[in-house]
Amino acid sequence: MATRVIVLGSGTCVPRRRRGPSGYVVETDEHLVLIDSGSGTLGRLAQTGLDYRRLTHALYTHTHTDHTADLGPLLFALNYTPGFERRETLHLVGPPGFDRFLEQLSRLWPWIRPRGDWLERREIADGSLEWPGLELRSKPVEHGGIPANAYRLETGDCSIVFSGDTRYCPAIVEIARGADLLIIEASLPQGPEGTDAHLTAAQAGRVAAEAEVSKVILTHLYPACDEEDMVALCRREFAGEIAIAEDLMELPVDSAGGGIES
Predict the structure, then answer these.
(1) Is the pLDDT of residue 262 over 60?
(2) pLDDT tens, 37-79?
(3) Alpha carbon separation from 254 to 158, 181, 257 (Å, rounded)
């Protein structure tokens, strides 16, 4: 099968009917990879027909609540789903400090501690990890002073980059260079400088242009973004293919240039 990405949450911390907090899943022949899991992610994963018990990896860009709220429920479900005993390793990856975050969460909710030895926890900053059929590259990005990563997945037939939350910085351009698909936050519709934590649509386009990516999906959208033509704002800097993320949008990806579908 071709690699596919499904957007599970295209929004932010702001509760909205249309957009849930951040979450994505990547499916390949060998792997099912979750990237972030804000509140409601597991329910939207169920809507796709994909089974959370099949997850092979869970990657977290940073520890803000709109990216991690369903981590505890995921581990709880993997422990206590009736008739199910987890045996396969779940590779859980986050930025520096993530292990401490998980330990603190486990002290509050001891029932999320794995029943068995199926959880492998790893912290990563600037580096890479590799499994059969999947390579993960990571770069620290700038997000308001907390540890935060952008991730690049190489699946054998395509490269997909997730910016996480970031301001404009050289690291996001570097990790996105030449990617088949860049899923990048564009939290703000306009503004010459953005903020110390987020990108505007034009800045997201600047990253895409400098990195020479093939396609861009704009995500992590605050309510004001839905009142603006985000594609036009992004296109001021990037001439390639652009789409706006929507919850449950499916994105087949390959290096030959498969299209964007909703």
Answers:
(1) no
(2) 999 999 999 999 999 999 999 999 999 999 999 999 999 999 9
(3) 5, 9, 6
Tell me the CA distances in angstroms from 87 to 79, 110, 124, 211, 223, one per residue in order. Answer: 11, 20, 24, 40, 41
Query: Structure tokens of 94?
Result: 């986050």
For residue 72, how many other CB atoms are within 10 A of its CB? 17
Instruction: Please name which of 61, 54, 10 lies closest in space to residue 36, comparing C-alpha atoms.
Output: 61
Tell me yes or no: is domain 3-253 CATH 3.60.15.10.
yes
Cross-strand partners of 228: none
- Separation CA 79–CA 219 (nearest Å): 31
Q: Domain extents for the chain?
A: 3-253
Question: pTM value?
Answer: 0.96
Order of strands across the sheet with 159-162? 127-131, 134-140, 149-154, 159-162, 181-185, 215-219, 241-244
- How many CA atoms lie less than 13 Å away from 25 in the CB half-sphere? 26
Asked if 164 and 198 count as a contact pair (C-beta separation under 8 A), the reply is: no
